[in-house]
Predict the 3D structure of the following.
Amino acid sequence: MNATWLPVTTLATSLLVVVIIFSLPEDARRPRTIVNLLAAVIKVILVMLMVGRVSAGREDIFSFQVVGGVDFVLRADALGVMFAGLSSLLWLCTTIYAIGYLEGSANRKRFFGFFSLCVASTIGIALADNLFTFLIFYEMLTLSTYPLVVHNGTQQALNAGRVYLRYTLSAGVVLLLGAVLLHYLTGDQSFSSEEGLGDYLNDHRGLLTLIFALLVGGLAVKAAMVPLHGWLPRAMVAPAPVSALLHAVAVVKAGAFGILRVVYDLFGIQLSIELGVISALAVAASITIIYGSLRALAQEELKPLLAFSTVSQVSYIILGIGLFGPFGTIGALAHLLHQGLMKVTLFFCAGNYAEELGIHRIDEMDGAGKRMPLTSIAFTVGALGMIGLPPVAGFITKWYLGIGAIRAEMYWVVVVLVVSSTLNAMYFLPIVHRLWFRLGPAHGQGQWPKEQRLGRLETHGWLLWPMVFTALASLGAGLLAGMPFSPLDWATRVATGEYLP
Amino acid sequence: MMTLLLALSLLWPLGVAGVVIWQTYRTPSARRDYFSVRWLSAAWPALLLAYGGEAQWTIDAWMLGGEWELNALSRPWLAFTALLWSVAALHARGYFAAEQAQAQAGDQAAQRRLMRLALLWPLTLLGNVLLIIAQDIASFYLGFALMTFAAYALVVHTGTEEARLGARAYLILAVVGEGLILGGFLWSAGEADTLTLQGVRESILTAEHGAWMAALLCLGLGVKAGVIGLHVWLPLAHPAAPAPASAVLSGAMIKAGLLGWISVLPLGEEGISASLTQLGQVILVAGLAAAFGAALYGVFQRHPKAVLAYSSISQMGMMTALVATGLVAPAVWPLLWPGVVLFAAHHALAKGSLFMGTSISEHLPRWPRALIWPLLALPGISLTGAIGAGMVAKWGVKSPLYEMHHETLIKLLSWAAVGTAALVGVAIWRQWQQRHEGGSNRWQWGAWLAGIAAALATPLWLPLPAGSVAMPPLKEWLGIMWPLPVGVVIVAVGGVLLRYVNAKAPPAGDLWWLYAGVTSALLVPMRLIARGCGRVKAACVLASKQAEEALMGYLPRLLAAEPWMRHHASGLMMVLAVLLAALLMWEGQR
């Protein structure tokens, strides 16, 4: 039975929310909150349904023809559902967080409208079954994120938004060029087709390589690979929930997910290896990993540090793709989820520090563990996960990537992993040390930059609980990685599907 | 039943830590007891577990697949570790009594310190227990990391300048060690596609680059075990840490590195490759170098705990050499390993007692001197092998070596024992010089006495395989006991001779200062390079911005061409038509 309604309803839920929110008046806070949360919960349920159906071996397809030879196709396959699951779950958390975060600030209608649009595009990207559909949602994501980045309306935010648009729109053009070339070469190419592009290899080797370079080059801007990462640290001026969403699910992940789609579903692993582009990808990812960590080391403010950490961490996914073999793929896919959980936690923490205590710089964080213990514990969990220490989820991915590198006989990747772990430790451990071991305003030395008492607990409950949940999820994903339906389990399922069709 | 005990021994420390947090928020500070009976009991379930017999657990949902086991090796290991943790906890109750009184009187700094220690102590213990029972890599690594990072709080406790330096050295080397271990595990496990320590051992044995994998793991675990070159944190961290923390650090935690070696190296296996044997020889030499070098350097230290830290390095050097024998001469290992375990267990308790003793000599109880100073020296004397468990332990490693004719090694180890005796002598002497009367607490000396008793009677309670260790025959006694008098005499003579030489004691942490100097020297060119890169990048950005501006400048000019074209539209059309016609004609001609 083909439940066509399932993917399309999932997408429509988010789109409908956008319409409703934009039609509500600005000061209708309660209805907007209810609509937001209701839709987020419904979407989580729908995605769970899809997960159930996919694990039972059924894939639901929705399609209609746009013009001759170009179809709009949504399909719930294992990889797409994985990304959709991440985005719907984190959307729920981030929405709750954003409601608390934007309490009493201006332009909330605009914010939540575009916020929902942004997530709707992410779902579209996850479920898109061909390059055409993918591109539509990909560009929609670019445009819907801009208002979020410039939400504060300051000169700095506007500048950041301009840089963001420059990068992403030119990348979009490059991507479009690649897609058009591919369409010219092969016609409509579904992600789910079994044969891949292998037939074209002999006659069009150069063209295929060019198309690959164009597609991946275009996607790499959103995935923030060096040297195309410049927009990401600047986009830090956005409000914390936006940064969290940007880094954990929406924009950066959309780029990485796109590369996953291109390599695994469009070109196919076999063809990518024969073209020799895979190793280039691994090298580029390694450079990004090390460069991001080095730059993070030099940061003095918390959010830019996290941004450069994202630059470094997202490339783990690309690195995993570069290690052809099931282990690398499992590592890449699991990291897509793990990094999302951990990074969203870290950004929630950064937002909490900024909201409650006015902390933006790292050297202002001394002794914050006493004032905000739960936030600091969550931050510690996230930081340890980024370093790759067990039992946090980051260890699991690092392990699989390392094993994959050894299996592929790319020993230098292990060196990259170890060096990156050490660098991560070098910039995260001092912060953790500051939180717990230094004396600060909480011990009567100095003052917080701008302290507010937002809630009965250490901060506003809406800010606190999503963070606690994601921190627990990051711990659980590592500690109970062997459970069915854990991120690792699902990643293994997808990878097995790719390698043993 | 065993499963219940296992769950309890892992969850109980966690619960204890939870209760510490709970009482920080709920109990008023004046009634807060950081070292309650509940806290003291953190290690008791693990101790019971060790005596519960052998058992095995497989937990699929746990990380990458949990494999836990209590076998002939991990049972005695868990027993002495848990015992030392229990004794040290009792000692801590007395040691921190004064600080606790301060905290109850409202001293915020003392409250903070004690809360931190009380919270992270059970977590460190938890890591230590987990790594002992773990047979799969992920659990082992988790236990190791948890223990390593949680122990930071134990080292840094007092928060003084020295404590922070010691803790920093500890942490930096720990991070380096974790990286090396991760690399080694990934390499060996990736080659053999395994998730267990047993698999790693087989992989190292059979893989082409097995020796290199083993070397990585050896170095990584060696940070904990104080292998020479990576030992620098020990003499910096130990004097700064509180006595009970030093006791578990030197007794239980550095043994984790040793256990790691025994678990991952293919000791005593048949068919050890030539390169692995070579590695074994290197480790052997490194171990002996540590045994002698630490003794030579340590005797010049002023702080008794620094002397004891060097003694730990020296002792671990001996154990390193013994482990290396398992690679160099595999046939000896099946006979040797119970002796090594006994050696480690005895050293753990004896060194723990010696460290606890340093706090006794700082707060001497009103006992006769003739009683207290021999008691302080007793674990040290045992450590040299002259009496009690030390003698049995020495014989436990000596007799298999005799049987397999490794006389040179025996001789070297005996001479290293002279170093031990010298170090213990110096330590007691320094304690005598820096003694203070009063302020003793019965928990403090009670735990210390219990530690001494446990150390002297180690073979009686350690659950080793039956018949694996025995009392040495009478005629061998002299051969085991001689290092003690020789060492003491050397120290005495040296002390008298050096009285007239006015030289400064070498700094604790020896190579650390070299490393620190080299690193800061290396940082200078690296900063220069980084600055250069930054400048290049800025120049690139500027250049591309200018190029963009120039391009944008052309746009209006292009637009300006439009009116001109509009004006000359008819003419341009004519030209176009002519061109097209010419093209057509040219096409027709071909």
In short: The radius of gyration of chain B is 32 Å.
